Known about the structure:
Blueprint: E1 8-14, H1 22-33, E2 37-43, H2 49-58, E3 63-66, E4 80-81, H3 83-88, E5 93-97, E6 100-104, H4 107-117, E7 127-131, H5 135-146, E8 151-156, H6 159-172, E9 176-181, H7 185-193, E10 197-200, E11 224-227, H8 234-241, E12 246-247, H9 250-265, H10 271-284
Parallel strand pairs: 1-2, 1-3, 4-6, 7-8, 7-10, 8-9, 10-11, 11-12
Antiparallel strand pairs: 3-5, 5-6
Helix pairs in contact: 1-9, 1-10, 4-5, 4-9, 5-6, 9-10
Amino acid sequence: MKVSGNTQIFGIIGCPIEHSKSPVMHNAAFEALGLPAVYVPFSVRPEDLGKATLALRALNISGVNVTVPHKGAVIEFLDELDPIAKQIGAVNTIVLRNRKLYGYNTDGPGFMLSLRKDAHFEPLGKKAVVLGAGGAAAAVAMTLAGAGLRRLVIANRDKRRAEVLSKRVQKFFDREALAVGLDEVRALYWLIRESDLLVNATSVGLNPKDRLNLNPNSFHPKLLVFDVVSQETALVKAARKKGLKAIDGVGMLVSQGARSFEIFTGKRAPFRVMKTAVEQAIKYHR
């Protein structure tokens, strides 16, 4: 990869950032298309988010992806939002155009593409439990509601945040949306038992030692488990051990990354190249 005065700079901001496979994925795509661009990780603490976001303009950085924990908080520093990002209330892609910062959300479309393509799951008329209430959870919840989900349960450690997200869903869609705390073990048990889909949209699982406090007996044979973390988490392992179909977040990562790449460059993303790069990176770090 040659870097010169004409090289476009892209990246990803988050905290922590060491786990991200986005640099590997996007740099492989740039190289495959012969684009004069580089993609780098930026570790940005929450207290520095405003300064870091505004610095994108000063440094003429062409675009960045946004990950935990900044997807919601970054919005106040942007000039404009696309309709999907505005509805979800979270941004995972920022582009600098004509000195303005534009925010997009590709998590929702990326999740839905993976859900349908990798899991062969159609949400229309189904019931789902989504774990988490942050940016990724908002993208998953709003996208499922928009696809015709019949009932949505938001379960979060802080129940108040789950209530805020469930009300946001109901603001835009005529759907049954319930909020529950992760510590409401018995209620969560029955809500999962009654559902067709369980999605972990928290960061639990980035560390292999992390565990979600779920009763595995709530995993019935027809339940699909989807984890947005792009590796085989304890949740995915537990579901597969019980014979359930369980999908990790690799497909979602690549799908949202491909859409971000197209927003960044205006060119069609080399999907297979990007997916291979992510799979090799995961294999290497096992």
